[in-house]
């Protein structure tokens, strides 16, 4: 609690204990995952993956990607939180000290599962991770809420795993990757170094979104550096500093934009999605871009009647600019140019091509409505000033978007005074602060979290839940 | 002296404005007369207009006939060929000067015909 307000960390992390997790992996897959030390002396997951070149499971991959553009981190262990992220006894001590009531816990290794090529291995790892985390977090007065992970490589298996996570393992939700890498159509042989992606809003993944709605869970989208997922600008930077500046927010921005414009929020109007660990300060800018492009290129867009100035006006301006001498040639030149710019060979009113009507099925709804009706959430970390200006840019909606996250367990997280710093980074009123520290996380994760809160928090959150 | 300089400056200012206005009107005139038949009719209009002035010294009734013909040629060119509004609607008063200068520049259409054939020969 912080000054009587419930505190829910919406995106804490587990550092999987490899010794324990190994026991949960089906024996036939155990030898295909292990730890190695890279040339810089850092720990990497070593995964023997399917090799498209040989057709066999003989592709040795290291995660996070140790070198090259978009590479993952190194020297990643946080001195304050590494042990707590592995051992819950320490985690609980830290939570008590900082005044955090609940940790919603995402994984670390599992953030790369969507990049595994062998779908059977991916399924096995997801099942193992979920079983491990459910056991690992059981007890502790219901203060630890593990989030499951699902294999995007097999949608049917993913849906089954969502149901297992929620109904059998008692998890409050599952995490999905912001995108799944797929071969780039122009260079399929260079995959996964050169890649395209399918985001979670792709039609193939709609059963996953349907399952989230059916089970009333708030999906957590979580990316990561060095994962071979498409990472936007980070795919073109060769230092980890630059990669890490862009990777999380670019992955989330792509996922959010595609969710909106692929019509996922339209198809599932009660779907709630958290776009996590990418910050929130960029949301007003992106939301405005959504609105502007919807307004100008979807709602008001009329491809059959493109702008066409009058030839006379065009010629007059040409004459004024070039002079009235030799105006016979000038008129001829102006007319030729005019016909080139405003094509006379193809009458726009007679061209009927579906590609001219991008996202036409969304013309009836401003994307800002998806924010207003509580379908979109983001997270912020303790020293992030972003939440202080969301409501200035987006009005009351801006108060209901950002969930507190300490990023516990990762190198860039903050433990010491994390709640205090988050609460004092700006002069929040109490109602606003209540939303940021816990209310928005409750809105995101919904009844699955609400109904499993520690008893002492139930009364405290009544006003937030109604 | 000061009064003289001020008057001179005002004249320059007015002159510069008039030149600019005329250039705009001329550009508008040229741009709004692109159809060859309309161009021909306007050159004809200008010839008849000159004739109207000359006839004033001989028989005013011929002047009236000429003035009527100018309107038939000019308005007909816009209505049936160019299909736009006459230039004098936008630049009343000065359009006649722009029109005359245009006709003289183009030798009442002869130069345009020559340029057309020159251009065609180059294109071929």
TrEMBL record, chain A:
It comes from the Bacteria. Residues 116-292 form the Amidohydrolase-related domain. The keyword Lyase applies. InterPro entries: ACMSD, Amidohydro-rel, Metal_Hydrolase. Keywords: Lyase. This is Amidohydrolase family protein. It comes from Gloeocapsopsis crepidinum LEGE 06123.
